[in-house]
Amino acid sequence: MKEVLVIEDEQIIRQGLKVLLEQVIGGIQVIEAKSGEEGITRIHQRLPHLIITDIRMGAMDGLTFIGKARQVSKDIPIIILSGHNDFEYARTALRYGITDYLLKPVNRIELSEVISKVFKTNESNNDGTSTQFQKILQFIDDHLSQEITLKMIAEHVYLHPQYIGQLFKTELNQTFTDYLTNKRIKYAQKLLRQTHLKVYEVAQLSGYKSAKHFMTLFKQEVGMTPIQYRQSL
């Protein structure tokens, strides 16, 4: 199920889009927002697969919203809807890397085609895991013995920490913390198999400053202590 954030200050239009997306096109869950401010709040709560936004709203217009949305993620597809055939608005919007620009009243066939193209493009670029996500996983591999936080990764790949956290759920169906723990414990198992390092040394190389904490996690994940694991080989 794809999640689409619809930002539209006119309730009738917003509800019409919801029906069109959920019941006519299908396979979509609509998240509604009646203003740009509410839209930004929604994005921080959960990143959608696609954003559809009106361009002229109240306090925060569509372009301001898009600028703020791009600070969270540069990659979320965005479709702009506007009742104004305004070339300057369209040209400005293109600078933010929008996916398409459609005029109201919305042509349901045209919108369906654009959405279908967006989702097919995302899937074809995904090959299991995206290139962007591969960079994140490589960063973790390269720094496994060090402290790793979402903020550190975000600074390395120029993405918002929350977006990276969402990527782990989307790409691997697990949290960043669970992935990192699993990766560290697997590396610890490798060290226990292939070296004669002491347990506290294995803990440090696996990214754990506390040997006690490492041994507790190891037993939870593997079902035996590091020493028992080594003796069982």
From TrEMBL:
The keyword Calcium does not apply. GO terms for cellular component: cytoplasm. SMART domains: HTH_ARAC, REC. The modification 4-aspartylphosphate is found at residue 54. Signal peptide: none annotated. One of its GO terms (biological process) is phosphorelay signal transduction system. Pfam families: HTH_18 (PF12833), Response_reg (PF00072). Residues 134-232 form the HTH araC/xylS-type domain. It is found in: Cytoplasm. PANTHER family: HISTIDINE KINASE-RELATED (PTHR42713), TRANSCRIPTIONAL REGULATORY PROTEIN HPTR (PTHR42713:SF3). It comes from the Bacteria. The keyword Transcription applies. Keywords: Cytoplasm, DNA-binding, Phosphoprotein, Transcription, Transcription regulation, Two-component regulatory system. This is Uncharacterized protein. Residues 3-119 form the Response regulatory domain. GO terms for molecular function: DNA-binding transcription factor activity; sequence-specific DNA binding. Its main location: cytoplasm.
